[in-house]
Amino acid sequence: MEKKQSITVLLGLILTLMTGCVYGQDRVINQNQLPKTAKNFLFANFRGIPVASAIEDREIYGVDDYKVRLGNGMKIEFDSRGNWKEVDGEHQKVPNGFVPAAIRNYIAKNFPNTYITKIEKGRWKYKADLSNGLDLEFDRNGNFSKIDD
């Protein structure tokens, strides 16, 4: 009896994993299929730069995030609602209109001849990579925390 239960549990686990593999896949989408918030972000900050590709990352529970690559090589990652999570300029200057003013001001004051090449927005902090190679961390209000090693 215990052997049958163990086999049933094992089969259930295998089925669950297989279902996750089937539904947890990336899918190429048209830029018009991005959430409205993401489309507005692209229009406001990257106007005139074509979208080279857009990927929808699906998990068992639904869309996890969207990954967009622009024609100039920049990569942008959005959450399932279309809010930006990461903008990677691939060593190019990232537009700073969406960067919190406190972060922009801190960098302008303390690192005047640099620019942001990548910025990530986490739940509790921001991380900004600068053109001089430094990686800075800020709290969620944009207050400087530390230089990341």
TrEMBL record:
SUPFAM superfamilies: BT0923-like. Pfam families: PepSY_like. It comes from the Bacteria. Residues 65-145 form the Putative beta-lactamase-inhibitor-like PepSY-like domain. This is Putative beta-lactamase-inhibitor-like PepSY-like domain-containing protein.
